[in-house]
Each structure stands twice: as structure tokens, then as C-alpha cells.
Structure of Pyridoxal phosphate-dependent aminotransferase:
Amino acid sequence: MMMFDILRIIGKLMTNKRIFLSLSKQSGFEQKYIQKALEDNWITSGGPNVNDFEKVLKNYLDDKIFVTALNSGTSAIHLALILLGVGIGDEVICQSLTFSASANPILYQGAIPVFVDSETETWNICPKSLEIAIQDRISKGKKPKAIIAVHLYGNPYKVDEIHTIAKRYEIPVLEDSAEALGSTYKGKKCGTFGTYGVLSFNGNKIITTSSGGVLISNSQSSKEKAIFYATQSKDKAIHYEHSQIGYNYRMSNVCAGIGLGQMEILKQNIIARREINSFYERIFKNIDEIHFFQVTNNDCFSNYWLSTILVEPNEKKNIDRESLRLAFENANIECRPIWKPMHLQPLFSNYPYYGNNVAEYLFERGLCLPSGSYLTNHEKDRIKEVIFNFFKIA
Ligand SMILES: *Cc1c(COP(=O)(O)O)cnc(C)c1O
């Protein structure tokens, strides 16, 4: 083989490197905090990095709230349900259009999920369907114990409307803000509106601790209770004494070190994700079959964790969501359909659902686009080329 051929093959391999949906980026400061955990010999759950990470987050979110660092966002949702007193046979309302981690903890508690549809403006829980669901469940003899509302893809749900309804019926809101760190509603950070709020630092989120999450609450005593349950529910005694079920949910001191390093570039990551959103906006502006999702309400600021579109099927032109996804896949670019609604999942299909199939409509058309913090210009060019070829734009 000639030198030229080898270079060409290497070149092709490099140009075709997979573009992932949502890669996080290291700040370079993580090592310093991990090193400190090793030097302190705090290689366990809890510890100085965990305390510092909680402080930095509290400072960033709202000084009046309390932050408990845990080993995942899912654990945080589970603990929130426990703290809300959700038990066997209780009903919990949950936004249907979400990731399964919002709903699974309801089943951990032996409780019953009641799924509610989305509205088209934010794609999140619909106030009308929510109120119908609450009234119907009450008329059937059970008032829901909690409402799980989600800021999907970083886009705030209709906070005022949802919380007004929740207050009217005196039902606490569990705010799943796993995808929305840095998003705001009327200038206030997402995650701080509910009785409990949840963030996730899974590898694909806007910042990562490899795996991790936090529970946000309104009092020191709820934080203490969360730590109690998260560290095996040890009663006050010299020996190991337990009167309640315990969990091993506390964040590792090493992971918290990664989180401290990541917090140093959170603002940059949000700017980068929003910049990618503008990049897609410019591309899709004049394409009839595409509805490009953007926040339209001035009260809402999105971190645009993932940029999303709806593809309106056009049989004559052979255009639909799946054909576009495959065009990206052929260029080694990862795109994914938006979350499949929970009430359509085999696991959850027998539970009650209230709505008008908006979530289903969105699921049939919705596609998540590569949105990782810091796509290179070359990667953006590759994405643009696929879209222009697909829609036959010269
Ligand atoms: C990621 C995610 C979670 C769960 O967080 P983990 O840290 O992965 O357990 C919960 N809800 C939503 C909407 C998410 O996207």
C-alpha cells in the first residue's frame, strides 16, 4: 500500500469518528479534587469533597435550599418518595413523557403510577390533564400522594400553572430536574420549586460525576433524614441498630471530586449547549418538514441539554423521523428518538393514563440531535452536510 493510501484511510477514520448524542467534557480541575480525596484517604461515601460539592451547588442554586449528594438521580427520586411518605398502594402522578428513572422509584415503593400527558408548548406535564387526573383519582377514592413533573431536555415545565394546581389540592411536587441544571423559570433555578427537587450527574448530563445526583429540599431536617436513609438508616446507638429500611445511596467522595471539577465549567457548558441550539436553529429555519423546538416563553431559560426537532412525515419525499435518523447513522452520527412515553411502555401499560395523546404524537416525530458540550466545527460541518443532503438543499 502506498503512503498516500494509508494517509487517506487514516484521514477517513478520523473524519468518520462517531459523533455522540451527549458527551460531557472535562475541565482539567477534576484531577486536583480526586487527588485530594486520595491524599486525605477519604475513599468512601461521604467526606470533605461531598460536603464541598453540596456547598458549591447550594451556592449556585439558591442559598435557602438544602442539598444532599447521592449516588444517582434515581436514588434521589426514590428518597424523595420515601420522605413524602409514599408507600404500598399509594398513587403518584408522573409525567408520561420522560425517562423511566422518573417513574421506576414509584414501583420500588409498591405504589401506583398515574401517568399524565404533555402539552405542546414545553412538551412537559399538561396542566389541564393534570387537574382532570387529580379530580378523577379523588373521585375514585384516593388522593395522589405526589406529582412528579419533569423539565424535559432542560426545558422548564409550566411552573406557575402546575404548582398552583398542586397547591389547590395540597399535593406536594417532586421536581425532576435531572436534565435541567442551570435552567431557570422567572429567574429562579430549576430544581428549587418543588417540595423536593432532583438533579442528575450521570455521564450524559450537562455535568457529570460519572454517576451521581442530588436531592434538593427545604429544611435542614429533611436533609438529615435523607442522609439517614442514604446511609443504611442507622439509629443512634453504639452498636448497629436499625428500626427502618436503609439504603446505600450516599455519593462517593471520589465522585464528588469530579463534580467539584465539573462545576468550574458548568456555565461554559450551558453557553456551549445553547450555542449548538442556535446552530441547529439556523439550519432548520427554512425546512418545512421540521419543527425546531425552542423555548417560546420569556419566563423560561433552557440549558438546552439536548436540542430536539419534530419531523413531519412526508411520504412523497420519503421523509420521516426514522429515515432522517438513519441518514445520520450512516454518517456515524448518533441521534435518538425522544423518550418513549411511560404509558406506552410494556412495564407501565396497565397503569392509569390521562391525556389526549400529545406525548404519543411527539414521540412519533421527535428526534434528539447531537448536543454534547463542545462539538468541533468539523463535527458541525458533518452534521450540516447530512441535513443538507437529506433535504436536498444545495
Ligand atoms: C437521567 C435522568 C434521571 C436519572 O438520573 P440518574 O443519575 O441516571 O439515575 C431521572 N430523570 C430524568 C428525566 C433523567 O433524564
Notes: Residues 72-74, 98-99, 101-102, 150, 176, 178-179, 200, 202, 213 surround pyridoxal-5'-phosphate (CB under 6 Å). The chain has two domains: 30-263, 266-390. Residues 127 and 162 are 6 Å apart (CA to CA). The radius of gyration is 22 Å.
